[in-house]
């Protein structure tokens, strides 16, 4: 049950509205409602900041502050939907670079509408037309006017078109069900209104004519056709479509059948082809094949995929159901086939093509055709010997017939293409680990891709195996099992089987067993259906080069791969790597998550790591060296864009067999670090284990700027502790001093003052002994910061003044001056601070150091505020936080927004202060920063006014 403080009902099928119990909530401006609408129509999926910006501004002029404005809208929506709750517990969750509205199932009219329609379709497929009609009327009753009414912009209009099509599809199903129930007169009355509203939609013209004819109103049915014919000719210059023309001819001849072929006309399990004889007289009836395997009695989930499939397969044709090994393609296809079986009364054929089976050759097309022809009662002696002859006979037999054909486990398009009917009166469902792309191009096939189960569906799946009581008794252990299984249906089934066989085992014990057993050992099964074996069938089908690429990619320290990274791992050109990855992708061993970005499922990666470990050690070592070299130089390219004035250090040479990922601008550099910085630490650990210590320190240098600007100080300390250990092993005094200085800086920010003192003192001594004056100045400057944090202002001022004298580098001197001015601000000597800070600003400006300049403006703003110059202070702060925002330094942006709020509040601009503090609070919550709680204390009293 939803928390009583949380909105309990949302609507998009009409105006965008929300209720908390019986109280409607005030959702704010149309633009703010547009953000909520974009989150709602995704039904729990993530919407990135970019997508939300599109939802508000579309292709119009997008302001520079768009991202911040969207975050402000989200903040306000959270306060409306979840009053009094922290952002981390809000129904609007922060996910990556965006948000998702994680409302409970059944609280969104769109979700309820879709579920009713899907259930109605299932009921119609099983001839329960009364239930189908009732569900469809309940679904359509959820509509209250035009979808997303009152929401401006292109995005909302696109969604309105999509949702409108869903409504029309539901209307068509409703009218069809009503006709099949024999309510032609009532249907005719409703259809008169519908056709008037949608005069160009020939689906409803057909239904209207049929309803009138069955009501004994043949002349009126013909008039409907003539009206449509005239409208299309005058307005569009075209004739009605073939289906409507054929119906017109049938009405003229009085030959409209009492019921069309539909889910209502076929009797399940009758065993006879309609019209071929009488079920009461077997001697006159021809048996009809009914070969579908039994539907899985515990089938659950896959609502989104099922709804998409129902919409795609509304008419006969070909559909390819693809996905990785163990994802449940066959189970899904069999369930789908049973749902559609009633539409194909001439039979259902099933054939396992063994495309990826263990220990068996794939079924040859000619052998498959023999099996299919025999299933259609063709005498063996009349079956042609050659492939072309068999294919022609099969197409001839299926001509004009309505048959459902399920081809399971296909290897490739060449195996399947000879088995396809020649006419679009039958439905062909094909499952394969290969995407069979050429069928999509040449045979107009639809593609249905299955991924791992959604979290809620995975839990339901486990409940279906073990029962609600057992899962409900240990919910945390159940979630850990699902996490370990990667929400892969096969893995969940194997673990559930172990729990069923051992009812005395707790789920916590089974979860612990999963965490302690290596790789895929936890998913072994004596019957040969274990995860390792199933993956091996895909792996064994690879070419040698693709298999090698798979082996070198899986152990790599990256969560995802682009083509340059994969090429570097293999030591191959990008063009060759693209071809090999396409082979991995076709058999669903790897997934293209975004254009040009690929990832393995955790269990597939575990299998690949096993294959690599069993292979050539030199192959693994060489791939690791190339991975480190690629990561180092890609990170170097990114950090140069983020901090062009930063002094570079000499790096190991770029290898000839390594390709550096191109990074075009500062935004792309920030995005790369945001996505990939966690794996820098992994790269460091692997480098240290392999005795490649030189990479450990150099990788730390590349990530320093990003971690500093994003406020990830704990991670920064870990990175430099590893760098210090590597420098110590190498015996390099300069690297030891460098790593000690950064570690000391970070420990200062983390309030670990004793450790910081030791590291900074060591760094100063090391740089002084090496004659590295600029680095010594930086270390002295850092020691001044430590003294400032300790509240020892006199000592801090002394160290900053010493750093200014030592500095020969412009940015270093400016930094020391700025810190000195900050310390005078701390002691209340604002008039002393102003000229010092202006020197720093001038130096940074001349050097083109935008990040330093932003720091200077922030310090100068504090000096002016201390002197009571609030307008000047607000102007300085605005320049600072806008620069930090542009640079992506969200932590400093938040700190400066808090300062700005204080300045404008002193100018009696309470609204600007409120919005600035709200934005700062949102940033701090999103960052989950160590200082967030302390700084948030400055925000909440104002936000609650």
Can you lay out the helices and strands and say which pair or pack?
Elements: E1 9-11, E2 17-20, E3 23-24, H1 30-41, E4 47-48, H2 49-57, H3 66-81, E5 92-94, E6 98-101, H4 109-125, H5 129-140, H6 154-180, H7 184-197, H8 202-214, H9 218-235, H10 242-253, H11 303-312, E7 317-322, H12 329-340, E8 348-352, H13 365-375, H14 387-398, E9 404-410, H15 413-416, E10 427-432, H16 437-442, E11 446-449, H17 455-466, H18 468-473, H19 475-484, H20 489-501, H21 507-516, H22 531-539, H23 544-553, E12 561-562, H24 563-570, H25 574-586, E13 591-594, E14 597-599, H26 602-613, H27 617-642, H28 666-676, H29 678-689, H30 693-709, H31 713-730, H32 733-749, H33 753-770, H34 773-789, H35 793-806, H36 810-826, H37 830-847, H38 850-866, H39 870-887, H40 890-906, H41 910-927, H42 932-936, H43 940-943
Parallel strand pairs: 7-10, 7-11, 8-9, 9-10
Antiparallel strand pairs: 1-2, 2-3, 4-6, 5-6, 12-14, 13-14
